[in-house]
Amino acid sequence: MKARQKKQDLAPRNAPVQGRSRERSRQILDATSELLEQVGFDDLNTILIAEAVGISVGSLYHYYPNKHAILHAMAMRWLEGIAQALDNIRSWPVEEMPLDDLLNRMLAEMLAVYKKQKAVLTLVQAMFSVPELRELDTQHDEMVIACMADVFRRAGINRHIRERERLGRLYLEMTHAAFLVIVNQKGERSRKTLADLKLMLSTLLHHHLQAADG
Q1: Residue 95 DSSP symbol
Q2: CATH fold of the domain at 2-213
């Protein structure tokens, strides 16, 4: 009963079907992203969000019942971007691509989603720490691991599915942590961190590819 109530508390008050409603919902999510960068998660509240959008708190509640519901919608939007990037990767001719070319393109595809989301570090921390959002954190991990396990198989790493899933989780943990650092770095520091990430992953994947060939 409590779990059902929590899901109800996260549900939008009115599904944004009409164009005006969808636009208002987008404005609320965009304003919340900006505020997360400015004030952080703890000081974020519906009063600040309503003021940033230029509506009353009552009008805000017409769309979302509380702060966590807005963050849930933000996280869902970010996950949609992750899912689209993974679908793009699946559509590539992985079997024909040199491993390092594949790796470079995968990292660029996924990093673009992290860069697009403002305050992504704060959002990800909320997904991990807020009980109402933790399901989305798990969903993110499972999506990436499943995709990478399949991509590694197609790339020639012919391991048992459990071993490929282990490599998928390692890939996830390495890239997820590094991306959250890279998006907050500037210029040369960002480029160096990305280059180090590519080097570590290239070494790892080439090792397992050679072992599979052997």
Answers
A1: G
A2: Tetracycline Repressor; domain 2 (1.10.357)
Q: What is the CA angle 54-67-74, rounded to 5?
A: 85
Name the nearest CA neighbour of 7 among 82, 81, 91, 66.
Answer: 66
The H or E element containing residue 27 is: helix 19-43
Give the SS3 label for residue 197.
helix
Could you give the dihedral angle defined by the CA atoms of residues 153, 159, 162 and 167, in that order, rounded to the nearest 10 degrees?
-70
Token pair of 161 as six digits = 């599915």
**So where are the chain's domains?**
2-213
List, for residues 83-109, the tens digit of each pLDDT value: 999 999 999 999 999 999 999 999 999
Q: Please indicate, yes or no, whether the overall pTM of this predicted structure exceeds 0.85.
A: yes
Give the integer Cα–Cα distance in Å for 193 and 182. Answer: 7
Query: Nearest 5°: CA angle at 188, between 185 and 194?
Result: 70
